[in-house]
Design brief:
By secondary structure, this protein is α/β, with parallel strands linked by helices. It has three domains: about 140 residues, Nucleotidyltransferase, domain 5 (2-Layer Sandwich); about 200 residues, Nucleotidyltransferase, domain 5 (2-Layer Sandwich), CATH 3.30.420.40; about 200 residues, Carbamoyltransferase, C-terminal domain (DHBP synthase, Alpha-Beta Complex). About 35% of the residues lie in helices and about 20% in strands. The protein has 21 helices and 23 strands. The strands form five sheets. Strands 15-23-22-16-17-21-18-20-19 form a nine-stranded mixed sheet, with helices on both faces. Helix 7 packs across helix 15 and helix 17 packs across helix 20. The longest helix is centred in the middle third of the chain and has 29 residues. The mean pLDDT is about 95.
């Protein structure tokens, strides 16, 4: 059985394809379009997935869309009637988007050459948050677990709690739009002068530079409820009817979400590019603290309600790796699983899994611990490309290659590493990575200013051989997708300053040999030469989506100050 899952006309549009429940390919449209958070129809991602599965669209049994216009229909009607006399920007945008969702049959017909009448019976709509729940639970190793989906909004829901058992998901409760943990965090992100969609991670990175002295004041904007969910004080946020969630230009566009009371309480908002003061850093720390408290509030009630020891989490707020790293010690849960694409790109994967497992009641596949489901290029293809560009290169076997790379890192040098299938999700996990020596105290400044060209306060991540985690980190958990931040042991922080954030933490990736054999071997070679089983790892890009092809990797290498480019076994060095 072939199932194609889509996230379409929503931020981070994507496609994923499964054969008999096994994930064959998954990728975001932005990797092809080269526009971050692309929100249009994922035509290129669909073509890629069909090619990787070796099928045509007429051979696909079900096409699953992570969006259900019928979900919470009467809630939507009540919202419209309650606000019927107000100017309703949100309603206008949603009507436009609903029309696009309805046009998917036409888009797929144009893409495939099939008639809409052939495509129509294949389409299954899956509610946004149910797709998130499925992306986490059905990909997890747990037969039974509590599940949380928490983000900005989708299908008039912002948070959904559930349980999963076997191949079934049972929804317990949800929070309706506009009350939202994601929009709460975004509102303060905008207030702090980070206006772009997806900038929330900047606040998370800034938070350790401040103290949460405003946490009590910020917490007044939310109302933690006795049922384990939450509400909010609407005076702190924009009027719900005026919220703009527009994807018409294929780029997610969100209006100003903070309200007059945030300005009254905290003063004038920071303008983009304005100097960051200690007050801004303290507000960031306070927002992060309150967000964590909200997550723990929801999860502790969910634990008491279900009595389950396993928890699966997805949704945009599940990308908050700082909070994720604190969940097990602040709740009753013992085991945690978060997918590699916990954000909206994961909707494609989740909608397909929901149909296959929950609706069709098929047996679940093994747990997913690999995010390597994207593009791949052979050494022969890369050689042909480099020769066509008149680029001088060497092709080395793995032993000589890893020696050469490690020697370059130790110099110290910065290496672009393009290896195997690209990752599905926002994190580089050793397939499309820029790597450096974590012992180099100047590496962070060099990468931020001359290669990534981004804010100086943003940290870099350590990829560590799984078997050495206990030696360097105060906690030991599986972290295959760089989805958790843990404290680094105090005695190790001076050893790896380039991946130690200002608060002594690191957003780690635990690298397993059976999942990432070449990346594991490279780190092991670095360990043999330096005694340190860690590489600094950041995404292979420069203010753009992560590179997807050898050409994009070469272009990024040439316009930055990287010292070496490695495309599979082909090495390009800057002379």
């Amino acid at each position: 059985m072939i199932i194609l899952g889509l996230n379409a006309y929503h931020a981070d549009s994507s496609a994923a394809i499964f054969k008999d429940g096994i994930l064959i390919a998954a990728t975001e449209e932005e990797r092809f379009r080269r526009i971050k958070h692309w929100a249009g129809f994922p035509s290129e991602a669909i073509k890629f997935c069909l090619h990787e599965a070796g099928v045509t669209l007429d051979q696909v049994d079900h096409i699953c869309i992570g969006r259900d216009p019928k979900a919470k229909f009467w809630k939507k009607v009540q919202f419209v009637l309650k606000n019927v006399h107000k100017k309703n920007t949100l309603l206008t945008d949603r009507i436009k988007n609903t029309k696009k969702i309805a046009s998917i049959e036409n888009e797929l017909a144009t893409l495939s050459g099939l008639s809409e009448s052939v495509i129509r019976p294949k389409i299954v709509n899956v509610e946004h948050h149910r797709a998130h729940l499925a992306s986490a639970f059905f990909a997890s190793p747990f037969n039974e677990a509590a599940i949380l989906s928490i983000d900005g909004s989708g299908d008039f829901t912002t948070t959904m709690i559930a349980t999963g058992k076997g191949n079934q998901i049972n929804v317990i409760d949800s929070v309706d739009f506009p009350v939202s943990a994601g929009l709460f965090y975004t509102a303060f992100t905008q207030y702090l002068g980070f206006p772009h969609y997806g900038d929330e991670y900047k606040v998370m990175g800034l938070a350790p530079y401040g103290n949460p002295v405003y946490a009590d004041e910020i917490k007044k904007s939310l109302k933690f409820t006795d049922n384990g969910l939450f509400n909010w004080d609407e005076d702190y946020f924009a009027n719900a009817t005026q919220i703009k969630l527009d994807y018409s230009t294929h780029v997610a566009d969100t209006s100003t979400l903070y309200g007059k009371k945030i300005v009254e309480v905290f003063g004038e908002p920071r303008k983009a590019g304005e100097e960051l003061t200690q007050k801004h850093k303290d507000i960031a720390a306070s927002v992060q603290r309150v967000c964590e408290e909200l997550i723990f509030h929801i999860l502790n009630h969910l634990y008491k309600k279900t009595g389950l020891k396993n928890i699966c989490i997805a949704g945009g707020v599940a990308q908050n790796s700082v909070a994720n790293g604190k969940i097990l010690e602040n709740t009753g849960f013992e085991n945690l699983y978060i997918p590699s694409a916990g954000h909206d790109a994961g909707i494609s994967m989740g909608s397909a899994l929901y149909v296959y497992n929950h609706l069709l009641k098929k047996e679940r596949a093994p747990a997913i611990y690999s995010a390597y489901t994207g593009s791949k290029f052979s050494n022969d293809e890369i050689e042909e490309f480099l020769k066509g560009r008149n680029i001088i290169f060497e092709r080395l076997d793995d032993d000589k290659l890893f020696d050469r790379i490690v020697d370059k890192l130790i110099e110290p040098g910065v290496v672009g590493w393009f290896n195997g299938r690209a990752e599905f999700g926002p994190r580089a996990l050793g397939a499309r990575s820029i790597i450096a020596d974590p012992r180099n105290p100047k590496a962070k400044e060099l990468l931020n200013s001359k290669i990534k060209r981004r804010e100086s306060f943003r940290p870099f991540a350590p990829s560590i051989l799984n078997e050495y985690t206990r030696e360097y980190f105060e906690k030991v958990e599986e972290v295959p997708f760089m989805e958790k931040v843990f404290p680094i042991k105090k005695e190790k922080r001076e050893t790896i300053p380039a991946v130690t954030h200002v608060d002594g933490t690191g957003r780690l990736q635990t690298v397993r040999k059976e999942v990432s054999p070449r990346y594991h071997a490279l780190i092991e070679k670095f360990r043999q030469k330096t005694g340190v089983p860690i590489l600094l790892n950041t995404s292979f890009n420069e203010n753009e989506p992560i590179v997807n092809t050898p050409q994009e990797a070469l272009d990024c290498f040439l316009r930055t100050q990287m010292d070496m480019l490695v495309l599979e076994n082909c090495v390009v060095e800057r002379k």
